[in-house]
Amino acid sequence: MRNKNFHKYSLIFLALLLLVSCARETPVPSELPAPQVSVSQHSETPTALPAEEQSTEITETAQAQNHIPEPPENRTHYKLDLILDYYSRYGTVSETITYTNRTGNTLDEILLLVPPRDFEDAFNLQSLTGERVSSHRDEGIRTWVKLDPPLQAMESTSLTILFRLRFPANEGVFGYTNRQLNLSDWYPLIPPYNPETGWIAYNRVTDHNNIIIGEYVVQETADFNVSLKLINQPEFIEVAASAPATMIDDTYYYELPLARAFAFSVSDSYFEHEIVHNGTRIHTYLFMNHQEYGPDLCEIARKALELFEELFYPYPREMISIVAGDFLHNMEMDGMFMLSHKVIDNYHSGEKNNMTILTPHELSHQWFYSLVGNDSVKEPWLDETLATYMEVLYYERYHPETVDWWWRNRVYEYDHSGYVNSDIHIDGGYEKYRAAVYLNGARFMADLRTAVGDEAFFAALKEYAYENTWRIATREDFFRAFSNHSNANLSGLLHQYFRD
Predict the structure, then answer these.
(1) CA-based angle 33:386:371, to the nearest 5?
(2) 82 - beta bridge partners?
(3) What CATH number does the domain located at 32-61+372-497 have?
(4) What values do phi and psi take at 36, rounded to 5?
(5) Which residues of 225-235 are buried (b: 16+ CB within 10 A; e: fewer)?
(6) CA angle, residues 291, 350, 14, in degrees to nearest 5
(7) N or C: at which end does the chain have fewer Cβ atoms within 10 angstroms?
(8) Helix (H) or strand (E) holding 452
(9) Do the domains 32-61+372-497 and 76-364 sit in the same CATH topology, yes or no?
(10) Gap between the Cα atoms of 480 and 489, Å rounded
């Protein structure tokens, strides 16, 4: 609803949206490396490197990978059958989890994380059964499932969970507004297991302004079979999802192998547009006041997809869904991402706008989050720092004359201090988290590129992506890839940007 303060608030929202991320087309160069950006052109003070770093030797470049690695065997399988009443904001779910113990240890308990419990009265458990389930106990968002007999290494078991969802009024990726209902992290899941430290499970973190900091749910690669039946005037409703649907009778069926999670966004207000790039469907779901921007959004995504496929390897899924979010942040999911409606509201033709900045960022999370996992609580830089730097690579490729604008508008107009490898419990809340992990992270990546040179930089990124696909990557994995392609001494760089 517009009022006399609308324009003032719009300007405020526009500034905030650049802080929240976790023309004519320039001819496309024939190959990477893209035009090099010297970080000293964009930094207030150039990075000082030790003398021995000034002459960088490049080790033998690994053979380019144009395919993805073999997937892990014995993956966890989720079967989810959802009956949803969009207008009453209510759902019933039958879930079956088939889990193989790949931990190397004997398990007498399995941990379930139940993210909907972060919202009061959103999750109501009806039953939890299985051939080995003897009991269970709830501790906040955790449910500990006692097994009898215990699950030996490489044995499998199944859990069947029946539950109800009452969606909260929440402008975010779980809950509803008057324009959409979002289902992300909407079902119980089994988190990864570290043989040395146990289950990788955390609690949601919010700052003093009640802003959620980062993502707290870490997930391993799994397979999903999902069905969705809409009741109560389904003919008015459109569904965006992590995978394309097959419609049988009145039910949508989805298959999504090798993913971290499965998400929906449901609305009776979507306008859709689609293009196809190298066999991948790029499909947008926008609100009525955005419908004219569908073609432009698809084209930005197409160019980003083309770039990332060249940098890493071809996108392996049939579809990517891009959804207008009725909230003030942006969020990645497997096979899908959501851009704040304010990002799209303020779009204008040309490249100097948030939609052009943030679409490549969110799309790159299909690699750095979905395909290449990481511990998003302890090491969020492994997806958010990389995704932020993918923005400037997009500008280098397609709008090189605007690269300086990107650095000023995206990084240097805001606080860009702090340790890049900060975790989501960082002192100072979301603003300090953004400054360190996103914005200072982009500076680190630019300085790293300068230190090792373009050839080694892009070869190492490709190797890191390839070698850690399907895995939960670590800092050691990242720098191992760079040491395989450069003998540059990075100690000064690490001292400047990393806390240890």
Answers:
(1) 100
(2) 93, 228
(3) 1.10.390.10
(4) -75, 140
(5) bbbbbbeeebe
(6) 70
(7) N
(8) helix 440-452
(9) no
(10) 13
Taking the C-alpha atoms of residue 248 and residue 40, their distance in angstroms, rounded to an integer, is 58
Closest to 205 in 3D by CA, of 457, 44, 429:
429
Q: At what angle do helices 6-19 and 354-364 cross, to 10 degrees?
A: 30
Cis ω on the peptide bond leading into residue 380 (within 30° of 0)? no
Distance spanning both ends of the chain, measured CA to CA: 49
Domain positions in the chain are: 32-61+372-497, 76-364
How much of the chain is helix, strand and coil, in % rounded to 5? 30, 30, 40
- Of the candidate CATH numbers 2.60.40.1730, 3.30.10.20, 1.10.150.120, 3.90.180.10, the domain formed by 76-364 belongs to 2.60.40.1730
Q: Which pair of structure tokens corresponds to residue 240?
A: 């965006």
Which tokens hold the place of 79? 């079967």
Identity of the residue numbered 102 = R
407 Cβ contact list (under 8 Å, min separation 6): 37, 42, 392
Task: Render each residue's pLDDT in the chain as its tens digit; 500 residues.
Answer: 334 343 434 444 444 455 445 533 333 333 334 333 333 333 443 333 332 333 223 333 344 456 789 999 999 999 999 999 999 999 999 999 999 999 999 999 999 999 999 999 999 999 999 999 999 999 999 999 999 999 999 999 999 999 999 999 999 999 999 999 999 999 999 999 999 999 999 999 999 999 999 999 999 999 999 999 999 999 999 999 999 999 999 999 999 999 999 999 999 999 999 999 999 999 999 999 999 999 999 999 999 999 999 999 999 999 999 999 999 999 999 999 999 999 999 999 899 999 999 999 999 999 999 999 999 999 999 999 999 999 999 999 999 999 999 999 999 999 999 999 999 999 999 999 999 999 999 999 999 999 999 999 999 999 999 999 999 999 999 999 999 999 999 999 999 999 98
Q: Which residue is it, tokens 């709008």?
A: 399
Retrieve residue 190's tokens: 């089994």
| Token pair 């923005």: residue | 391
| Residue 222 near residue 77 (C-beta atoms within 8 A) | yes
